[in-house]
Fold each of these.
Amino acid sequence: MGKKARKTLEAYVTAQLDELDNALPMLASPDHEAVHRSRVAIRRLRSVLACYRGLVPRLRRPLRRELRWLARSLGEARDQHVLAQRMRLSIDARASWEAPEALYRAVESLDSGAGRAAAELGRKKRCRRIVRNVRSALGSADRVKVRREALAYRMQGQWELIREELDGAGATSSEAVRNSALHEARKEVKRLRYAAEAVTETFGPDTAAIIQPAITFQRVLGEQHDAVVAGEWLAGLEGEPDVDSRDVRFLRDVEERRRIRAEEDFRLAALEYPIPAARRVLNFEPAAAEFAAETAITAGSAK
């Protein structure tokens, strides 16, 4: 099983690197799909490298920084485009505005900025060099035996991180702190989802019990975060030339209602479709004491 599980992880990582190789040259195209594909691939890649640390080769710190830069740059370009699309739909949905031209200009500026950022990334040799270096580093590293128990331990740890973030969000009365905690929880949920997807071949259909609720959590927490980001962007429009404050207030009220509704949807989803503990849903029986000690040593040495 150790060899099969390792090959499953390696195949998943290789697939993400292949996707990046295919999508990065297309970043300069008018279609933002290449940005989305690249961003998802790099999220999946980094999720597996982080969740299964010690079971997959660990990149050196400079290369990890480079990979983080690429992920952040793709994220910024994609987030601007998504926000522009969201605002455009909200403006289109209402016929009566005090100064619609000013709103559309602000949205167009946002979307143009997203396009320029994506095109600039597409022209950078740095991006493709990062992918090439990651592939080389992972391909030349020593292979280790990967056991099902070790995979379950790592996913369990990721699940516990999610619970910690959600507990923190529920324990605070500060809206800013709650928004930050929910955003971090969303990122941890994505990491667990992709980590589970990577080992579906190893654990079989049992991983669906993790993946399906994770997708629901990701969706509703994503809506909550998008509403927060949209509200902050709209707040920045206050006082801009030609922008009518009444239009901005209306749109901010819309996003506030969306945020509240998303948080309620999330509370309902957490009650009805909670993400189960990984060790339990994967029918993982705790291994002998020597395995627990071995795992602790591996995790410690990887820090």
Amino acid sequence: MAETFVRTSMLAPSQMPIAQVGMVSWIRRHLLAGPKDTILTMLACALIFYTVTHLINWLLVQAVWVGSDRTVCATIAQGGLQPDGWSGACWAFVGAKFEQFVFGRYPLEERWRPILVAGLLVFLLAPMLVPSIPRKALNALLLLVPFPVISFFLLYGGLGLPIVETPLWGGLMVTLLLSFVGIAVSFPFGILLALGRQSQLPLVRWGSIAFIEVIRGVPLITVLFMASVMLPLFLPVGWTVDHLLRALIGVSLFGSAYIAEVIRGGLQAVPKRQYEGAESLGLSYWQKMWLIVVPQAIKLVIPGIVNTFIGMFKDTSLVSIIGMFDLLGIVRLNFGDPVWATPVTPMTGLLFAGFVFWLFCFGMSKYSGFVERKLDTGRKG
């Protein structure tokens, strides 16, 4: 008969183990795992603290926020102005030039017109971006048909409004105009190019390939230079094309070539059974593409599309090559103003322009993430 053992007393309770999850555990495992890691972590923290405190001091504490000229940005010591002593960031310069940074040299008494255009754009675009708002077809129709016509007459003039020539346009207004028009034109044109590159018609396929490869093979600054300098040489004598229109065409064509390759990647990712299923339903080529294939392709490449849009938005600063001044160009132009010429003026102006560019790009990135989550793009299970 086998012997049995019966425990007569319970084991003493063990000490609770150290938490293996949470921020404290992560810091112990990755930052304080050993003497070397601890020393490197302390040095990194000291460097970050030193850098951040000096940045805050320069950007906020010692910064000058109001003033009428460069003297307000000079430090005061021993009862007078030091010739070589300057404050932190000269935000007074940005405040004094803010309207010029936004509108360029657009006449003061007519600046209500671009403000009205911006308000109309927000009013028509916001319902398109919010999924829960109905009547998107009507919003799209208003945004694509009457809005561009109304905006042209408001910004340029006519129909009783004074004419404001495009060389007077500048600043953030030109940046937004170039980027929004470039995005609106390049997206549908890029889809057509992507479909054309996969077409069974040799003329359409090779024409699309030639356009895409030529445009993608040269930098945007070359496209703008060709549109500004070379295009008038091919026009009849006496004909001319507005500089802003040349920039719009150049940016749109350049963006459409990159959008076409992004969309083509999405078309190749759509399973073949989707094509076969559409054909089995008796759909025509265009019905198959617009109703079945293209929506799935766009859904798959949302990050690539938004990445291209962000690149286009930042590349608008290159229009200075053809004599136009976007936000960055108008900021740099004001560096030469002797009223505000200080050693801290350029850095302050560039930080302001960089923050504005980052704000719009970050907004597009966050909205892209929202759309991906809404469509469950890339999720498994």
